[in-house]
Structures are given as C-alpha cells and as structure tokens.
Design a protein that fits this description.
The chain is of the alpha+beta class. The chain has twelve helices and 21 strands. Strands 5, 6, 13, 14, 15, 16, 17, 18 and 21 form a nine-stranded mixed sheet that branches. It has a six-stranded mixed sheet with strand order 8-2-1-12-20-19, covered by helices on one side. The longest helix is centred in the last third of the chain and has 29 residues. It comes from Marinobacter oulmenensis.
Length: 428
C-alpha cells in the first residue's frame, strides 16, 4: 500500500489532546500505519515530569462515561483515573423558576455519569503512553502548508528557522483551528457568536459537592459547576464555567477575590454552601464554530478544528473523541484493504458515519444555550414544564442521560481483525 517515496503514511498537525489521542489509537488499532505528529511541544522522556502534582488553578475537561470507555479500549484509563473526579449526579436548574431535573449514575447502573480531569494530567498520560509507541514526533515544529500529490499530500513543515516537506497519504488537522491552517487549506468555518464570554476558574465551597455537577441557567447566561479533586472522597473544590456579558466580565475581573465570590454566590445560589475561594480566572468569547465539510481529498479536520461548542454542556471533547475513533476505524479498514488513507472514499465514509452524532450533539448543545437564554414568560413556562417533565418521565430522562453520558451517538469499538461487515452487524 505504502509507496517507498513516502516519508510517512499519516501526518497529524497538532499533538494536543485530539492529535495525541488519534496517534495513540492508531498505534493500538492499526500499528502498520506510519504516523508522524507535528507539534510545538517536544515529546521526550526528559521533557515529561516524573511525578504529577495537582494544581488548584489547573484547567480541566469533563469526560463523559462514553469517553472513559474509549480510554479503556486504548489502555489509558487506569492511569487517567488516578486523578479523575467522578460525576455521580447531575442537577439541572433554571434560576428563579421551579423547573429542575436530576440525574443519578446509580439509576443507570453506572459508577459515574462522567469525570473531571485536569488537562495537564490527561495530556501527561497520553504523552507517557506515546513514548512506548513507534509514533514519530516532529517538534517543536508546525505545519504551514499542504499540496496534493499523486501519492497523497506534500506537507510543508517549519522547524526552527528551516522548512522541509513531509510526503504522506493524508493530513489530519488537529491544531484546534487557531493557527489558521484550516483556512489556509481552503476550509470555510461558520461562526455564530453567543454575545457572551466564558470565565473559567476553580472554586472552593463550604459544603461538599458530593460528586454533583450543576448546570444552572440564569437570566445572565448558563453556569456549570463540576466536582473536582479527590476521586474517592467528596471534597469542596469544583471547576466553574461562568457565562458573562462583556460588561459583566469586565466588572467581575476588576473585583477582589472576596467580591468575586459574593458576586458568584448571588448568581449561583447556596446549593453547595458559601463560596470561600476562587482561583485564577481565564476567559474567552463564546462562539459556535462549525465546518459543514470537514474532509477533502488528502485532508481531514478533527477536534476543535472541526467544531467549537458552548462549554456549559461539556460536549466538545467528548464529541471529538467519538469522531476520532470513527476515523481510526476507517483508516484501519483502508490500510487492510490497500486503499490510500487520504482517498475521498475513506474520508467521506468517516464523515458519513460521524455526521449524525455531530449534528445531534451540536443541536443539543446549542438548543440548551438558546432555550435557557430566553427570559420571556411563555418560554420560561414551557422550559419549566420541560425540566419537570424530564425529572418525571423515565423515557425522556433516559434520553437526556444518554446525551450527558456521551453514549447516545457512540459507535461500538472495533478490534483489530474485525471486518467492516462484522462491525455493521455488531452495531445493529
């Protein structure tokens, strides 16, 4: 399948969470595919810390239950779980209204609905696992361009002050979409601003979170409070996503820590007692970014390069992870059949399989934000009834739980050697 003139089979632009997960999955499922990752951060034993010390101000990611299953398949969950705080309960409420719904992992015979993991710890687990693979790492470096060739693609890489070409079958863009590479390659992203900002920080409360994640919708925008800290003992630290207008963001950032806590208390309420500490605050404008056509011959967008969702529903990385596993399976089948990895038949099939999950998840996340952002009385009444209905109607509650747990659109794992026909039968 692979021409001798090719330097590698697959080139991944970006070695963050999406790119590193894709590389690791390919090494596990399709080890015959030669993979080169182009990343700004080096991958070497001496570049990785020997131990991990959790930081109060660490940024974190919410992993759905379905994402845990993926990491189990990759042999990564045992290490990730060491610092993964379980979400055993989810409480959704609408400030100033009676409507609320509650989800409990035990009602679905699960240990947890999901988990909260520090980004740095998750990245460290991925890097350590990648050291034991045959993945090639070009770093620090960046992809600055690509040209199609008869064999696949010729990718231009800038490393230090020099540029060189990497020839392969396919380029996967996993750099998050901020580098401009997506646009350089001719992909058109549609962006809709929510007119708000996300303030991200960690907080401490006087009462224990009891492993509960709170989704709190207010007239000023949605908020999320996710349990953080020890995986085994319910603590008092949580990760906060606080939606603010431009004016409110400026006001909050100018406040002292004590005043920030008081302002937060007023918006969130007293469900976990008093807010006693707030950590370093990060913020960014909220947008829904989508790319309708994420594949072209020889190139595919994944992760945040393909979509950026509102963070309050915690769907972004989990959606990306399901897409990555779908893509890995298409690459595995193509490699076994001798089909070029960058052919439109391969990438188009990936897009066809991933599209329903992508569309459903984007709509689910966006509709939550827009529905709960309206404060008109008739809309609020319908919304209240909907939350109460979710809490009472078993079928509706199970549907909502499947979305929260990331299992509604997840395709089953396919082990090496399983045929596409067997996979289809298993999926049915």
């Amino acid at each position: 399948m692979t021409e001798a003139k090719l330097d590698t089979d697959l080139i991944i632009a970006g070695g963050g969470l999406a790119g590193a997960t894709l590389a690791l999955a390919l090494s596990r499922v399709a080890p015959d595919i030669r993979v080169t990752v182009v990343e700004t951060v080096p991958l070497a034993p001496d570049a990785l810390p020997g131990d991990y010390q959790p930081s109060y101000d660490a940024r974190s990611t919410a992993l759905a239950w379905g994402s845990r299953l993926v990491f189990e398949e990759l042999g990564l969950w045992q290490s990730v779980s060491e610092f993964a705080t379980p979400i055993r309960h989810i409480h959704v409420s609408d400030r100033g209204h009676f409507g609320a719904t509650r989800l409990h992992a035990g009602d679905h015979d699960q240990e947890a609905m999901g988990y909260v993991v520090d980004n740095r710890w998750l990245g460290l687990c991925l890097m350590r696992a990648l050291l034991d693979t045959g993945i090639t790492w070009q770093a620090p470096a960046e992809v600055v361009g690509m040209q199609p060739t008869t064999e696949g693609v010729s990718v231009r890489v800038r490393k230090a002050e020099e540029e060189f070409e990497l020839r392969g079958q396919c380029l996967v863009v996993a750099d998050g979409g901020r580098s401009g590479l997506r646009e350089k390659l001719g992909f058109v992203a549609r962006t809709e601003s929510y007119g708000q900002n996300a303030l991200i920080t960690n907080v401490t409360t006087s009462e224990s979170h009891q492993f509960t994640a709170y989704e709190r919708f207010t007239e000023a925008g949605p908020m999320a409070l996710l349990p953080h800290g020890s995986p085994e003992q319910a603590g008092h630290r949580s990760a906060l996503v606080w939606t603010l207008s431009d004016a409110d963001l400026a006001e909050v950032l100018a406040l002292s820590d004590d005043d920030k806590c008081r302002r937060l208390q007023d918006r969130f309420g007293w469900r976990v007692g008093r807010f006693t500490r707030i950590g370093e605050c990060h913020h960014y404008p909220l947008k829904l970014t989508t790319v309708d056509e994420s594949v072209r011959p020889g190139v595919v967008l994944v992760g945040n390069a393909a979509h950026a969702l509102h963070p309050v529903a915690g769907q972004g990385f989990n959606l990306a992870l399901r897409g990555l596993m779908t893509l890995v399976e298409q690459f595995r089948v193509a490699s076994e059949q001798g089909t070029p990895l960058g052919s439109l038949s391969v990438l188009g099939e990936y897009q066809r399989l991933h599209w329903p999950d992508w569309q459903q998840t984007v709509r689910f996340s966006d509709s939550l934000v827009r529905l709960f952002g309206q404060q008109k009385a008739p809309v609020a009444g319908v919304r209240d009834a909907g939350l109460i209905g979710l809490d009472l109607v078993v079928g509706a509650k199970r549907w909502f739980a499947r979305h929260a747990m990331g299992t509604g659109g997840r395709r089953p794992a396919i082990t090496p050697g399983q045929s596409g026909q067997e996979a289809a039968q298993h999926e049915q």
